[in-house]
Design a protein that fits this description.
The structure is a single chain. The chain is an alpha/beta fold. The chain has a six-stranded parallel sheet with strand order 5-2-1-6-7-8, sandwiched between helices. Strands 4-3-10 form a three-stranded mixed sheet, with helices on one face. It has a three-stranded mixed sheet with strand order 9-11-12, covered by helices on one side. β6, α4 and β7 form a beta-alpha-beta unit.
Length: about 400
């Protein structure tokens, strides 16, 4: 696959340590796009960086054939790169996708004029359901009317599910990145246009939704559970927290609840899913992949959202008449979370301040988007049991 070009938005640890690795192993030259001058300048000057795989034995991989483009100052270069690209990917954060949509639209309009016959896939590798579909909708807002048929016919936005833990880390080298050995990147066959390119290390499926939900309701729900419960019990790291028998019990219970939903909804094999849960727990326990509870517990308001890792499975379990007590109790722990170093946690603490039980119920409704008063009351009661 030599000679192929990739444009990747987001030169952070996930971008370099996960998506960049897969693209490199598939022979792509990678143009990383970001606004972080330090990282972009280093990528441009060196053309390579190193990944550490933090397993029982530490392995290293040097990623070569890379460049950096600053989207704030060199938008024209980004557009030119999109014109030549065989694939475009993102790992930039769900909230940032709307901010790159205009630049992507400009790149696609230039591509329509200069490289109209080459199909292109744009894949948002984000911790969200339907990330590529969302990016497509945002991009379409900036397209000229005469470009929309071209984009519909030649540009794919297949949704994806991605999974790799990249812990908080500090390196003297701004490009060095440490990741866990495990990785999973699943892409929907639906909406693919670049059907002649199949990436090694990527799994292609007809129906992506079961795999997105399996990851969100297992890895993300589990990781957040350990982090929030861990901080409440005074633990600093994920490894330390999951070694706490009380937290491990809570983790197993919550993964049992979300697992019952996934099995009922998507007919996952029960034994295979139980093995998947054990793999997740072993990843959290990995002493060679240290992570902090505070990093994983960032953004508690977002994580209590209607379609997020706690509230969505609660809603769907209730619909099916299946139990969800640990999800309720853990949602209350998230609601009570305090971390002076996380702006969203500080905001949540301010929102909670001075509220009686009715005020807390109103806050739960506001944050979660729930209209089911019985679920709101269950979370509020669990919050009161924590001491408010």
């Amino acid at each position: 696959m030599s000679g192929r070009n990739a444009v990747h938005f987001g030169a952070g640890n996930i971008g370099r340590g996960f998506i960049g690795e897969v693209l490199f192993r598939n022979g792509f030259h990678i143009d990383f796009v970001d606004i972080n001058e330090t990282i972009i300048n280093a990528l441009h000057e060196r053309g390579s960086y190193e990944i550490e795989l933090a397993g029982k034995t530490k392995d290293y991989l040097t990623v070569t054939g890379v460049d950096g483009i600053n989207s704030k100052t060199d938008g024209g270069k980004v557009i030119d790169a999109i014109v030549k690209a065989d694939i475009v990917t993102t790992a930039i954060g769900p909230g940032v996708l709307p901010h790159i949509a205009k630049l992507i639209a400009q790149g696609l309009e230039a591509r329509k004029e200069k490289n109209p016959d080459a199909p292109l896939d744009i894949i948002a590798c984000e911790n969200m359901i339907g990330g590529s579909s969302f990016l497509k909708a945002e991009t379409q807002k900036h397209l000229a009317a005469e470009s929309r048929d071209y984009v519909r016919n030649c540009i794919g936005f297949p949704d994806a599910a991605v999974d790799r833990i990249v812990p908080i880390q500090h390196h003297e080298d701004p490009l060095a990145v440490t990741v866990e050995p495990f990785k999973e990147w699943i892409v929907s066959e639906k909406d693919r246009k670049l059907v002649n390119v199949t990436l090694d290390g990527v799994v292609y499926v007809e129906n992506l939704e079961p795999y997105i939900e399996r990851k969100l309701f297992s890895v993300n729900t589990g990781h957040a559970t350990v982090a929030y419960a861990g901080m409440r019990r005074g633990h600093k790291t994920i490894e330390e927290a999951v070694a706490d028998t009380e937290i491990l019990r809570r983790l197993r219970q919550i993964l049992g609840e979300t697992g019952s939903l996934l099995i009922a909804k998507w007919a996952f094999d029960k034994a295979a899913h139980e093995a998947y849960i054990e793999k997740i727990i072993s990843r959290f326990e990995n002493p060679n992949n240290p992570d902090t509870c505070s990093r994983v517990a960032r953004d508690p308001i977002r994580k209590l959202g209607f379609n997020e890792r706690f509230i969505r499975p609660v809603r769907e379990l209730k619909e099916r008449g299946l139990p969800y007590p640990t999800l309720i109790g853990t949602s209350a722990i998230v609601l009570a979370h305090t971390d002076a170093h996380d702006p969203e946690s500080v905001r949540l603490e301010s929102m909670r301040s001075g509220r009686d039980i009715n005020g807390i119920k109103a806050l739960i409704a506001e944050i979660t988007g729930l209209s089911d008063n019985s679920l709101i009351t269950e979370i509020a009661d669990a919050y009161e049991l924590l001491g408010g």
